Each structure stands twice: as structure tokens, then as C-alpha cells.
């Protein structure tokens, strides 16, 4: 599955995780992506959307 929102473009973010002893290790933060059937240009289509876009109403779900 895609790790990028088709609406806003939110994707994977990389960074550094620090332990209590200040040891560093690389890690990634994954967006909360859902596969939904939505109306795109008047036709139902399956797209990958982050939950922020779903909650804010940027996507009209197909029934």
C-alpha cells in the first residue's frame, strides 16, 4: 500500500530517536493512511487518504 495521501501528499517522515542515555538511532514516522472508496471527478474510485483529510471532510466517500 502507498505510504502517501492522495489528497494532501502527507508521507513518511524520517528522524532521529534518542534514548535516555542519549543513544541515537534512525527511525520513521508513518502517516495514518486508509484505503477508501471516494468520489473522484464524479466516479467512485479507490484512493489512499490520511485520516486528517477524512475527518476534515476533504473527501466525499462513495456509497
TrEMBL record:
<dbReference type="InterPro" id="IPR034704">
    <property type="entry name" value="Ribosomal_bL28/bL31-like_sf"/>
</dbReference>
<dbReference type="GO" id="GO:0005840">
    <property type="term" value="C:ribosome"/>
</dbReference>
<dbReference type="InterPro" id="IPR037147">
    <property type="entry name" value="Ribosomal_bL28_sf"/>
</dbReference>
<keyword id="KW-0689">Ribosomal protein</keyword>
<protein>
    <recommendedName>
        <fullName>Large ribosomal subunit protein bL28</fullName>
    </recommendedName>
</protein>
<dbReference type="InterPro" id="IPR050096">
    <property type="entry name" value="Bacterial_rp_bL28"/>
</dbReference>
<dbReference type="Pfam" id="PF00830">
    <property type="entry name" value="Ribosomal_L28"/>
</dbReference>
<keyword id="KW-0687">Ribonucleoprotein</keyword>
<dbReference type="InterPro" id="IPR001383">
    <property type="entry name" value="Ribosomal_bL28_bact-type"/>
</dbReference>
<dbReference type="InterPro" id="IPR026569">
    <property type="entry name" value="Ribosomal_bL28"/>
</dbReference>
<comment type="similarity">
    <text>Belongs to the bacterial ribosomal protein bL28 family.</text>
</comment>
